């Protein structure tokens, strides 16, 4: 066999659906105003960055992660107000928790269900683990379609229902009474994905306490540590115990754990940033409302979804002006001509609004 045939032999091992798709796209943003993936725009002050460097420099990197990650898990549990009888497990970002949940629940015929459009990893992860994903369209105003959700739950009996709360990319929270109905009807787990909780008037802990099949997933990414990769899942002890069995044993590095601890010790800094981003979100929303040719949707996250006449054209023109947002059009039919704009610093938002106005 020659080299080409050997490579072919290797390629033939990969699943057809894997070969037919592409890796998760990460847009290059060198030198641009980067408002595409809901990052916190604020870096630490020079003083805190120096202190963090000292802390990281003192970490023993020759050993596998152990006590450091346990300390971080305990600190995150305290930070989130984890109730009695619950446990926490950590992921390398909440993306990994979605993979872990899928892996731990992947029986033949398992169904994962979510209202759509929503965060794409629920579907991608389900597909790669041989599960069927059922998406239930949101209403035109992006509110949950209660009857359709209940009908789909009855028909498909999902093992996992994901509710992104607030929802990515639409930014909104949903009617609490409808969520309560969904939770009551669910035959399996309900995961409240609270990635955007730092910017929202919501907290699903009480829901979880009333209904122990509800799990709460959060991340330090939107809080301000997207580069560090720490997600966490809180729920009834017995349920978290099962999820934890499929966790890659040393999935959170010692450096990540130390950086996470450092951030929690400076929670006031991050709380102030979240407050500033909420205020900026209201400012941007008002400006978009006043701008002809664009229709923004109300948001409780650090992003605003907005519909324009021609999203591809506006996206490209903004990019040419040095501002990167996300063109969400292709992700779902309900998002046709929608741009998802991350909330940045005051200066970034000013630049974004100017570029947008010139690009419509
Ligand atoms: N959940 C939602 C709703 C998200 O939008 C994202 C990222 N955009 C994630 C989870 C994953 O976040 P991370 O892996 O950075 O924790």
Automatic annotation (TrEMBL):
Q: What is its EC number?
A: 2.6.1.9
* Positions of modified residues (N6-(pyridoxal phosphate)lysine): 222
**A single MF term (Gene Ontology):** histidinol-phosphate transaminase activity
- Domain of life, per lineage: Bacteria
Subunit structure, interactors included: Homodimer.
Which HAMAP family does the record associate with it?
HisC_aminotrans_2 (MF_01023)
Q: What is this protein called?
A: Histidinol-phosphate aminotransferase
Gene coding for it: hisC
